[in-house]
Amino acid sequence: MDIIRTENLTKIYRKRHLGKLKETLGVRNLNLEIREGEIFSLLGLNGSGKTTTIKLLLGLLFPTQGRVYIREKLMPNKEIVRLVGYLPELPYFYKYLTIDELLNLYGCLSEITSQEISQRIRQVLKIVALEKERNKRIAELSRGMLQRVGIAQALLHSPEIVIFDEPVSGLDPVGIREMRELLLKLKKEGKTIFFSSHIISEVEKISDRAGILDQGELVCIVEQKDWFAREGGLEEIFLETIKSAPTVFALEPAQA
After folding, report:
1. In angstroms, rounded to a whole number, what is the distance separating the alpha carbons of residues 163 and 86?
2. Is 166:197 a contact under the CB 8 Å cutoff?
3. How far is CA 172 from the centre of its chain?
4. Hey, which residues does 34 pair with through a beta bridge?
5. How many other CB atoms sit within 10 Å of the CB of residue 256?
6. What is the largest CA-CA distance in the chain?
7. Per-residue pLDDT tens for 127-181?
C-alpha cells in the first residue's frame, strides 16, 4: 500500500531581477509512490532536486503543478502533517536553550499534552542516546549531537512517516553508523522512512528501494535486489544512469 504518492509534481522557481523574470527548474513531472513500512531513498547529484522534492512533500513549497497525497489525503493538510517527522539537512536550533528546553518547546508546538511530554522526551532521548546530555545548551553540542537532537525533535510526536534530508551530512564514521542503526530500528517499529542522500554506500545498506533524480527528473527507481545482483552495486547503477540520462532542455524564457 502506498503511503505517499505524487502526481506530475513540478516546481519551477521564478525570480524577478531588473525587470526580467528568471525561471529555474526544481523538479518536473515527478510521479512517485512510497510504500508503507519501507525505507525509500532519493539519490542525486547536488542540485538535482532532492531538497525541493522533500519540501514539496511536506507542504513547505507549493508546486507549480501536480499533487502530493499522504494517506490518500491531498497535501497540504494540517491533520496529515501530524503523521510526519522531519529532519532538515541543516537544522537550526536556539543556541541558548538546553536540549530539554528545546524538546519541551517542540512538544508544545506539536500539541503534545503536558501529561505526555515528559515521557516522550525521555523516550526520544533514549533512542538518540542523549539522556545524560539533556541539560546541555545547544551551543555546547558537536555536529553529530546536533543531528541527534534533530532526530529527537522529529520523533517526538510519534510520527508514522519520517522524512530526513541528508541525515548523515557532516557526521563522522561513528555518527554515520549510529544513524544507519537508528533508521533500521525505526523501520522495525513499523515507520515509513524517506530520506535523501548522496552517500550511495549508506543507501544500499539499508534501503528497500532508491529513486534516482537527475536535473529535476526521476529517471529510474531501483529495487534492493537489483543492486545486490549487480557487480559494483548501487553505485554502478547510479553512475551509469546519470551518464546515460538525456540532457534536460532549458526552460523557455519567461515573459517579463
Report:
1. 5
2. yes
3. 20
4. 4
5. 8
6. 58
7. 888 999 999 999 999 888 888 899 999 999 999 999 999 888 767 888 888 888 9
Amino acid letter, residue 114: S
Q: Cα–Cα distances in Å, from 12 out to 29, 66, 247?
A: 11, 12, 17
**Residue 27 CA: distances (Å) to CA of 41, 54, 66, 166:** 16, 11, 11, 18
> What are the residue ranges spanned by the domains of the chain?
1-83+198-256
* Gap between the Cα atoms of 146 and 204, Å rounded: 25
- Omega within 30 of 0 (cis) for the link into 76: yes
The CATH number of domain 1-83+198-256, selected from 3.40.1550.20, 3.40.50.300, 3.40.50.1980, 3.30.70.3040:
3.40.50.300
234-240: list long-range contacts, CB under 8 Å, 24+ apart.
Answer: 234/43, 234/200, 234/203, 234/204, 234/210, 235/200, 235/201, 235/204, 237/212, 238/43, 238/200, 238/212
Q: List the grid coordinates of 48.
A: 538535482
Contact 24, 13 (CB under 8 A): yes
Question: How far is Cα 1 from Cα 256, in angstroms, rounded to an integer?
Answer: 45
pTM over 0.70: yes
Distance CA 26, CA 38 (A): 25
Confidence category of residue 250, pLDDT binned at 50, 70, 90: very low
